[in-house]
Amino acid sequence: MTGRSRTQVLDVTREDVAAALTSRLGAGFRPAMVAGVEDDGSFRVVYVLVRPADDARVELVLRTSGVRPTIPSLAAVSYPVGRFEREIRDLYGITPEGHPLPHRLIRHGHWPQGWYPMLRDADPTPRFDPDVGSFPFLEVEGEGVYEIPVGPVHAGLIEPGHFRFSVVGETILRMKARLWFVHRGVEKLFEGRPPAAGIELAERISGDTAVGHALAFAMAVEDAAGIAVTERDRCVRALLLELERLHNHVADIGALANDVGFGLANAHGQRLRETLLRINKATTGHRLLRGGITIGGARLVALPDVDAVAGVAREVAELADLVLAGSTVRDRFTGTAVLGANAALGVGALGYVARASGIDVDARRDHPFVDLGEHFAVVLEQDGDVLARFLVRVREAAVSAALVRDLAARANRSIATPYAPAVDGPGAGLGLVEGWRGTIAHRVELGADGTLRRVKVVDPSFFNWPALPLALADTIVPDFPLANKSFNQSYAGNDL
Amino acid sequence: MNAGALVLVVVQVAVMVVLSPLLVGVMRQVRARMEGRAGAGVLQPWRDLRKLLGKETLQADGTSWVMAAGPVVLLGSSALVCALVPLVGTTTFPLVPDDLFVVVSVLLLGTVALALVGLDAGSAFGGMGSSRHMTIAALVEPTVLVSVYALSIPVGSSALSAIVEARIADPASIASPVSLLALVALSVAVLAETGRMPVDNPSTHLELTMIHEAMVLESSGRDLAWLELGSWLRLGALLGLVGSLLVPWGIAGDVTVPALAVGVLALALKLGVIGAGLAAGEVFLAKLRLFRVPELLAGSFVLAFLAVTASYLVVQG
Fold it and tell me: Do B311 and B150 contact (CB within 8 A), yes or no?
């Protein structure tokens, strides 16, 4: 199904890149990623655009010199592209000229001046400088306005993120999230590995999205090398993807209730999640489904117990009813942290965050790799509040459970064949997968020897994080943890 | 009379110091079991206290003597409330009346001390907690005053011991509309005052939603132990007051060993039942949106006010 023929590659110049991007966006494309690539003595910036309507994919390639590289900023054309430009600037030192928001994005305060971690000659472990430059938080002035700094170390088991609230009384005027405390250099670690050894790394990009990232990576490699995957293995992959969606959705349904003090629902959510994790363990040998995706195929220990999964799905529906039966919980969820459809479109939101605001995006339908059958439906809500995000996830869990049954039956009818295809380079490929948080994009370039030359990873959280502050207008401080949990973005997947 | 009152005060405070951590332990254990968890056991608050008292007390940079004095004032005021409220017996000092206005003032002293502790370190969370705490206190104290005042009108005295003695003498008055309205109002106020659901979630780790926990974040060691014990004593004394008003039997009328023994046992039983019931109820509650808390407390004030109005009608009729 996939093949390099699908992606149209166009060389663009500094002068016509803006027009090329604008016309594609007008024709229904959305930016999936902007990747910097270092060649010998020069840089390439690759704008990957995809069209949900017909799964068309376009790569605009802009070349720039190796000395004091610059590109024209396209932040005015597309907000997400502007954020990718800042990422490329911090990783490669390519300056986007005329960027309206030029301050650092992922560069941590302790990184030495002039150290760009993705460059070939970058010292992998530089000596850290003291954090001298202050982070450019906007100071909100006015009578009674005060600031609340939270994090990056929190009281619970939460990834590191610093939130700076400007508050009047209890009402949030503005919230700025400072993320990027967990840079591990994942994209750099991919370089030089054989593709098969990239799977284990992809599984660890974001611990709760092992299948999503591994599958996007595998599909990008297969796209680059022209490897076909059997129908049976594509069914198994979709099956694993739904199992992953299910256990994450179930955990968060309980966790959302817990954040309004309804611990009973969380106890049930945790119990159901544990049941699912044990099913996962029996299915792939790993509770978080690691090891299920391989280059060119998929590997199962056994098919999942579909009756047990269906039982969990029934209990999840009961649990959701229990949560929403309480008028207090409903009151806390309803109208809290509303993300409007225009705001969601503007930041390019993905996944359940977008779907809860009425934005109809789902890579399972827009960029399909297997026909999911009659039980598949894209779940949409319109209100964009915590309740909408909760309901989208409840209904998606039900859809996932139905898909698990269908896909297991289809995978069962065909025989597994151990398969380790040779990966030939050079080539470049794109993998698009609807992980539980939203559309994951991986772009892989293979060297002539078939090893990984450049891997660019985009977790949907990269798109969705800017949506959170937008949703906080008119929200009160004690509702922030609930709002944040309803988005549940990845910090590690965002930072890489 | 004085010697007897002294014995009673010592017994009441000593019993409450022993029982309050156990009460909190029972409440946590009930909640844990109802949520399907094993729980830490009813003795865990006592173990926590022992641990905290054995630890070095650290103070954040920039804090003042308030950080050390506040916990002692809170503990002292809570102990005084335990001494004044008729829990084990009704004998009182003639000089220090167990007048309801005195009790509420002493409660407020502890409230302010705790709020100052929250403000002293100058951290955003402490200030936020103190601000919310004072907002709720301002809404709660009038309700406590008015509801107990409603109970005092039929008796003709605002001394709590007189009210309780009158109820023992005339049990039918407990089920009167005045009494029921006032008790419901008082119970809601006690929930808010002691930081229970649905006003505050005592078991949360989310800093931004905290009220009570936010104020004690900067305290450690002995200071934290006094803050915790002081808050538990308040919870115990207020639940005990509700218990004494609702079920006044078993409270010692005179200071003799058998009467006191019965009083202590009755108190333990009442606290255990009320605490377990409260914890069981909390399992099914979610925390209110902060801006809805005033609506709840305004509702309880209206009930208290109705109780006062009704009590005048009853007295005149």
Answer: yes
A324 DSSP β-pair partners: none
Pick A476's closest partner by Cβ from B35, B205, B290: B290
Q: Do B291 and A155 touch (CB under 8 A)?
A: no
Q: How many domains does chain B have?
A: 1
Residue pairs spanning A and B at CB distance below 8 A = 77
How far is B75 from B53, CA to CA, in rounded Å? 14
What integer pLDDT is reported at residue B23 of this predicted model? 96
Strands across the sheet with A7-12, in order? A7-12, A56-65, A42-51, A30-39
Query: What is the mean predicted confidence (pLDDT) over B141-158?
Result: 87
How many Å apart are CA A80 and CA A91, to the nearest integer? 17
Residues A195, A450 contacting (CB under 8 angstroms) = yes
The per-residue pLDDT for A402 is 94
**pLDDT at A83 (0 to 100):** 94
Task: Please identify among residues 313-352 of chain A the ones whose CB lies closer than 8 Å to any CB of chain B.
Answer: 326, 328-329, 331-332
Give A143 to chain B, closest Cα distance, Å: 17
Which of A133-137, A414-418, B18-22, B178-182: highest mean pLDDT? B18-22
Measure the CA angle with vertex A105, ends A101 and A109; round to 5°. 120
A168 touches chain B (CB under 8 A): no
- Flag if A263 and B31 touch (Cβ within 8 Å): yes
The residue segments making up the domain with residue B11 are 2-316
- DSSP H helices, A27-172, are 79-92
pLDDT value at residue A412: 77
Separation CA B128–CA B215 (nearest Å): 8
Q: Hey, are the CB atoms on B198 and A328 less than 8 Å from each other?
A: yes
For chain B, what is the mean pLDDT?
Answer: 89
- Give me the pLDDT at residue A411, please: 85
**pTM of the predicted structure, to 2 decimals:** 0.91
What backbone phi and psi angles, to 5 degrees, belong to A377?
Answer: -150, 145
Q: Are A76 and A96 in contact (CB under 8 A)?
A: no
The pLDDT value recorded for residue A337 is 92
**Segment A181-230, tens digit of pLDDT:** 888 999 999 999 999 999 999 999 998 999 999 999 999 999 998 888 88
C-alpha A96: how far from its chain's center? Answer: 24
Cβ of B128 and A477 within 8 Å? yes
In degrees, to the nearest 5, what angle opens at C-alpha B286 toward C-alphas B280 and B135? 110
Contact state of A257 with B286 under an 8 Å Cβ cutoff: yes
For residue A187, give the 3-state DSSP assignment.
Answer: helix
